[in-house]
Write a structure and sequence with these properties.
single chain, alpha/beta, 15 helices, 44% helix, 14% strand, globular
């Protein structure tokens, strides 16, 4: 490695980050990619992000995009057969970028990124870090893209096993994901380290303008005297959106002082139609996509937050956003939810609409408990899940692979 890496000197790495997604698109793994890049740059590194053609450019980030493909001009969300073409184009863009400058580290997100990064690492001798955010095949099954009893399951599972056993360090977005790699995929413990999703507590703060919140409620036809249950994330069945709406119907049948604000994309029309079919369209607002910059003001409208994600392997960064905003949070009882919320979460039995409704109602009925939980959750996230802590962990991983 270059002499400027000498011990005792400030270390700044030139990082090639491979993001096989339509970065930036205001959700989930995109927020992790963004906030990792921001903290790495704050710590003195230079980060270049290779990603798909679609996505939103952001100030302060060097983003290199693939060529577009004429038959697919929309964002890629979740599993898709079109990702094969995108992966080929991303491989070309990433290799071209790697050849154009001497990089110190390849930081590859998701399994597709790790596969592309591994090839470039072998060709050019650049150390690779795999940023693992959940099981590839489990995600495909959750998204109903892969049938566990079908002919393609075993080949895809084998591909996942091969990628997980590349001889490169793996950073996981939760302790549960690290345990999954160790227990289910028998990965080497020396190569697996948990670097959980984190949150920017300066950006996400419960201190918001009351007048602006009142204006938002009026714009969205939310009664000013209603308690508001909020959700912010992707709208999809594996995210529990249908479960949340069905739980909302139970609650709305019992009380008239509650409104549900369900923010995100895609499939907004589908879930508006479901709300109409359930007879609660006037009690539910689905405003669509919320930009990253708007997250604090939109979440501040809520009194109770919900994280009904059904996947047992993916992370759930929205929970950390809720915690930073002092929002008492109801979640399905999954290992990742328990990891983030600990004893401060209000849990529903995984997959149960009735249990979800009971858990939400328990917080609506107890304002004092809501306030206490909110304060304690923000304290917990500030103590355990800040990007400053995660940035130091990532830098230590870079140091190890660059000096071995």
């Amino acid at each position: 490695m270059p002499d400027r890496r000498a011990a005792g000197h400030k270390i700044g790495y030139d990082v090639l980050m491979i993001a096989p997604t339509s970065f930036f698109a205001d959700y989930g793994c995109h927020v992790r990619i963004l906030e990792e890049a921001q903290i790495l740059q704050k710590l003195g590194n230079r980060v270049t992000i290779c990603t798909y053609h679609n996505g939103r450019d952001l100030d302060g980030l060097d983003i290199r995009r693939t060529m577009g493909i004429p038959w697919r001009r929309d964002y890629e969300v979740g599993s898709s057969r079109h990702k094969i073409a995108f992966a080929v184009l991303l491989s070309v863009t990433s290799l071209r970028t790697a050849l154009g400058r001497r990089f110190d580290v390849i930081h590859a997100h998701l399994h597709e990124g790790a596969l592309i990064g591994h090839v470039i690492s072998k060709l050019l001798g650049i150390p690779l870090v795999f940023d693992f955010q959940g099981s590839m095949t489990s995600e495909m099954i959750d998204h109903r893209f892969l049938n566990p009893d079908g002919p393609f399951y075993r080949p895809m599972r084998r591909l996942e096993e091969i990628i997980d056993h590349f001889p490169h360090p793996i950073m996981t977005s939760s302790r549960h994901a690290a345990e999954l790699l160790l227990d289910e995929f028998q990965c080497s413990p020396e190569l697996v380290e948990s670097v959980p999703d984190c949150v920017n507590t300066e950006f996400l703060s419960p201190a918001q303008d009351p007048a602006a919140l009142r204006e938002l409620k009026m714009r969205w036809s939310i009664p000013l005297d209603s308690q508001v249950v909020v959700y912010l994330g992707l709208l999809a069945e594996w995210q529990g959106t249908g479960h949340l709406l069905r739980a909302a119907r139970i609650i709305c049948q019992e009380r008239s002082d509650v409104h549900f604000l369900i923010m995100g994309f895609p499939s907004v029309g589908r879930y508006r139609a479901l709300a109409r079919d359930l007879g609660i369209a006037d009690r539910v607002t689905l405003p669509g996509r919320v930009s990253y910059e708007q997250i604090p003001s939109r979440l501040a409208v809520g009194d109770v937050a919900v994280a009904p994600k059904l996947s047992a392997t993916e992370g759930s960064g929205k929970i950390l956003n809720y915690m930073a905003m002092e929002l008492p949070t109801v979640a399905f009882d999954t290992p990742v939810s328990r990891e983030y919320l600990g004893d401060l979460g209000v849990y529903a039995r995984a997959g149960s609409v009735e249990s979800l409704a009971v858990a939400i109602r328990s917080l609506l009925d107890d304002p004092a408990r809501r306030a206490d939980l909110g304060v304690a959750l923000r304290e917990r996230v500030a103590e355990r899940y800040t990007w400053e802590q995660a940035g130091r962990k990532i830098m230590e991983i870079y140091r190890r692979i660059c000096f071995r």
